[in-house]
Amino acid sequence: MVDREQGVIVCRAARQVVEGGVLTGESSFASGLRAWTPEAADELFRRFVENFDESSDEFLVKLKRQISEGGDAAIVLAAELLYLNVMPLSPATIGVNRKFEILDSVLSWASFQVRVPDALAAAASPGYMKGGQAFLNYRWAQFAFLIRLTRLLVKLPLDERESALRDPWRFRDLAESVLTDYDGKSRARAQFHVLLFLLFPEVFAPVSVERNKQLIRDAFADRLAEPTGDFDRDIYAIRQQIEAEHGGQFSFYDEPWRSRWEPPPPPRPQKGWLVRGANVDGVNAIPLWLAESFCSVSFSDIEQLPAGASRQQVKDAVAAGLPDAKQGSKDVAAGQLWRFLSGFQPGDLIATVDGDAVYVGTITGDAYYDDSAGRGLARRRSTKWNPTAMSRQTLPEEAQAKLKTAMTIGELTSVIAALATGAGLEEQLTDEVLAKDETRGLIVPALTQAFADDLLMPLDWLQETADLLTAKRQMILYGPPGTGKTYLATKLGEALAGPDRTSLVQFHPSYGYEDFIEGFRPRLGENGTIGFDLVPGPFKNAVEAAEKEPDRPYVLVIDEINRANLAKVFGELYFLLEYRNHEITLQYSPDEPFKLPKNVFVIGTMNTVDRSVALIDAAMRRRFVFRALAPDRPPVDGLLRRWLERERLPVLPALLLEEVNRRLNDPDRAVGPSYLMTPDVATRRGLELIWAAELLPLLEDQLYGKLDDIEARYGLPVLLAALGHTLP
């Protein structure tokens, strides 16, 4: 929560958007546009709700497919509904910049320029309340709910619309009537609770999680003559009593009220764990776990150990219990057992898998020993399980991949938020776990016309390139020298990820795995001794940075990617380029699982003079999408002429370049425009120097052995004469 004054601003902004739209039909974003109409709501309903997209793409990618070709009214209405969705959320749920990336992307699909008005934008910065995991994983369901509710409201007679906006309980009934998703579930309940508060803050508490409403009601039930079973009405009655006693407004999130209802936080950063129990010494232990509220691991050959045992204690016990095992197996067993005894903490979340069924619970106590059901089930942790199973097929791909580990115990912290949300345990998630949640949708901002104008390239081609990169995650820009491959790759990365999240590395023939991923580097130690440190390369550095912000793109540009031995440089990463949700071990870090996050984009550049695309290894071709940059095809065709016109320079250099490429008559050896995209071409001396020092040496290299006298065919005087021009 933030200060109460910000809450007033947020609620006032939400009321303005909804009341203005429902009562008048007018847009709050685009003056004079009637966006809150039955026609616009019906169009959104057809395009988004009825045309449900079950693909694994990010929310904004799917939304663009569904509504970007719609009418302006429907697009602006969609942006205003998404404003209601993201505007009230604090940075703990979604950052301010991310809010406007979502809104600006949607508004960019309209046929005219629309922006969020300053007053409404100010209300969204920084927001007001923590929305929980549902606002990250179920935005599609919340958006669909807002569409259904808007469609219902705008079709009511005016007097009924006015009544709904005056009567909070009438409004709640209308909203609840459209809360059910297409499959009978209600994934938008958090949005439902937030919307009630936004529009009627004097009646509804600023609580997004229904479980928290129950906790509040139960904690203050002594103030009720008789609970009604309606959390909202009971909390409203409790609020009235407390406000009357204390002479003004208060918040259940302030002390001394908060500590009465909110469970205490876990003692250290929360983690998520997988514990396998479907085959414990040939027996499925999961039904017993669920019935008796515990989880367990076997290791029946190892002596009893106390809760909180040190790593060394566990290693010694494993060595004694498994004397004939290989050292690697002993190390794995010791690590697994130590995690269970000492790594797990009360408050951590835990999952287990029984075929397709996934169960999630909360660890509630320290490790203990109980062999009443046999030694295989003796090492236990008290666990409060949600007895309702989820199908693993309905989980995000990242979570499904994590559940495939063969280990008895595996860490699930990066995906546990999605599992907990599906199990109704989202109120137990901490901000630290939410920040590490890699199942959050990756929002890639739409490219702008200003960006395209700066590059002098068509926006459609650039956006299509960005969409291809977003879908495949790996792209190679290829073409002859001077076509701007590296410049475009860098600018595209900065537009999608920002300059701080874009890095560049250049490959060369001696570049290897140790340079790119990780390798040992010599270090001068004390007394002149030489030691070696394991040093991460640019690829691993990019991955580690991307893991800290799983919802932001990170772009690694590999310049001249084809000059290195790709199989040697990438090594086992060939696999991860295609299967990003899987974990592997790197050859120099065998004890640390490594994966390639979905938010790492790779853009390679390749000169076709050096190597044809057809000669690239088939495995590499399958893992990359290729995009050509050729002087005779868009977007490079005519680029030099457009640049000269923008800079108000003579068009002669463009004519010379066109004549050179006409004579070469070879797309792979054509000369790109960047050699001549300099103010020096405006002077005789400058053009002569570029021709003598850059273009002729390039042509001599490309035509080596094919043409004896380059000057006679491609010299500047020869070309000027052919064009009928002279230099001033």
Automatic annotation (TrEMBL):
Protein name: 5-methylcytosine-specific restriction protein B
Pfam families reported for this sequence: AAA_5
Keywords, in A-Z order: Hydrolase
Stretches assigned to the AAA+ ATPase domain: 471-635
Organism, as annotated: Streptosporangium album
GO molecular function terms listed in the Swiss-Prot or TrEMBL record: ATP binding; ATP hydrolysis activity
The keyword Chloroplast appears for this protein: no
SUPFAM superfamilies tied to this protein: P-loop containing nucleoside triphosphate hydrolases
EC number: 3.1.21.-
Keyword Phosphoprotein annotated: no
